[in-house]
Give the backbone structure.
Amino acid sequence: MLEDFGEKCGVFGVYGQGLDVARLTFFGLYALQHRGQESSGIATSDGSQLYSHVGMGLVSQVFAEETMDKLPGHIAMGHNRYSTAGGSRIEHAQPIILDASTLLSPGGSEKLALAHNGNLPSSTALIEFLKTKDITVDGASDSRLMAEAIAAVMREGSSTELGTSKTLAQAIAEVYPYMTGAFSLLVMTKDELVALRDHCGMRPLSIGKLNGGYIFSSETCAFSPIGAEHIGDVEPGEMVVVNAAGMQRQQLATPDPKLDIFEFVYFSRPDS
């Protein structure tokens, strides 16, 4: 049986050299606290490795000053969890961290972090895909299924280019057709941050700019507290990649926008 997850959560991400990304993510999650009060987590990268901290409770309860000092780097993502079922347990907290190492990974180590807002009503396609990779998925949430699938493709390396491994963006593009449902995702490795939405755009995900860096947030209300400027949204069916080369956008599926009135009436803040 798959664990049921609440589909309305808050995600927040930052990419920017010279920015205090962990602290910015803390304030972003604080502004998105209404989207989830069960658990909170932040993952960061300094370009060499990933660091993370998750805990049960409100953002202000999970993170202390000494905790923030242990989350260095120029890339960060955070998650507030809201659940309607599946239990309130620490193992459900996000971001999810997985090993995506290949023999081609420098030092043999590559970590993947994923934060998810949404719900996959049917996970059959993902489960069948993972079975072809000999990955056991008993009891896994839809969030973990997506993370496992992306990591599996990255671990395989490239089937067409000898001596290279698939990038995070290539892996996501390959797995995307198997993710059937409503989702806004943030995915990161040690050197890049990726944001994407399902082709219906059921879950919101906005883009901001701050001192040359990029911000992603479930709602725009998290931009003003940190001084970020809202510059647009991740479009339905779109993947946005931010790395040292800047921001690149790729359409993965034909947009078919659908409005979730519950999202806008019940979960969003009036200043979003």
About this structure: Residues 123 and 142 are 7 Å apart (CA to CA). The radius of gyration is 17 Å. The chain has seven helices and 13 strands.
